[in-house]
Design a protein that fits this description.
The structure is a single chain. The chain has about 220 residues and is α+β, with helices and mostly antiparallel strands. It folds into 2 domains: about 10-110, Type I PLP-dependent aspartate aminotransferase-like (Major domain) (Aspartate Aminotransferase, domain 2), CATH 3.40.640.10; about 130-215, Aspartate Aminotransferase, domain 1. The protein is about 35% helix and about 20% strand. It contains 5 helices and 10 strands, in the order αββββαββαββαββα. The chain has a 4-stranded mixed β-sheet. Strands 7-8-10-9 form a 4-stranded antiparallel β-sheet, with helices on one face. The longest helix has about 40 residues, at about 115-150. The radius of gyration is 21 Å and the shape is globular.
């Protein structure tokens, strides 16, 4: 992948060309399509339920299937996911279950009965406009956080249509634990969710600036 996290399309094309005689299953993001023998499943995870409400994004691409997490952006109290696929794939998967006197199209033959109720309730309560407003708030606040960080001389990156702000890893593990930051190597990230307010972001950045003044003396060191 590229530094931004995107697929290196040139490298991807070259690898596909080397294996034209073999089928491929590609686990990727929402902006993809498939042709010929290539089946593409989009793992939407968190952003699968955010992207439809963002500008310039459409799910009209000819993908094979897409899955999204129900316990992340929607907030279902137990881990769960939803997979949507094309009818021809469901027909190939479904089978008759004699003791149920019906056809079963689930992947595992069973599922948690409570999770769909929580999802149904939340989707109906918030509605399309409700989710759209939350997504717009997340994107707006993510841009605000990136702006605060860069204005303070802290290296930060935010991909378009994303609410994940990547920045320099703090040097204090206590600070990292306090703010529950996810870190890898020399970078950390903040996923801006609907419950995160501007005041909370200001508190975070202000404390980070204070800590950096101690860690780096001038507070503007970039690793």
């Amino acid at each position: 992948t590229l530094m931004s996290g995107e697929i290196d399309c040139e490298d991807f094309r070259a690898k596909l060309s080397l294996h034209k005689d073999k089928p491929a299953i590609i686990n990727t993001l929402e902006e993809s399509g498939f042709t010929g023998r290539f089946y593409i499943h989009c793992d939407g995870a968190l952003f699968g339920l955010m992207m439809p409400f963002a500008p310039k994004v459409s799910f009209k691409k000819p993908i094979g299937s897409v899955s999204v997490s129900g316990h992340k952006f929607v907030g279902c109290p137990m881990p769960c996911g939803v997979q949507i696929t094309r009818l021809e794939h469901i027909n190939a998967l479904s089978r008759n279950v004699e003791y149920l006197a019906s056809r079963d199209a689930t992947i595992m033959g069973s599922r948690n009965g409570h999770a769909p109720l929580f999802l149904w309730y939340t989707l109906n309560r918030k509605g399309y406009r409700g989710f759209q407003k939350e997504v717009q708030k997340c994107l707006r606040n993510a841009h605000y956080l990136r702006g605060r960080l860069t204005s303070a001389g802290i290296g930060a990156m935010l991909n378009e249509l994303s609410s994940t702000v990547v920045f320099e890893r703090p040097q204090d593990e206590e600070f990292t634990r306090k703010w529950q930051l996810a870190c890898q190597g020399n970078i950390a990230h903040v996923v801006v969710m609907p419950n995160i307010t501007i005041d909370k972001l200001d508190d975070f950045v202000n404390e980070l600036i204070e800590k950096r003044a101690v860690w780096y003396k001038d507070g503007k060191h970039k690793p």
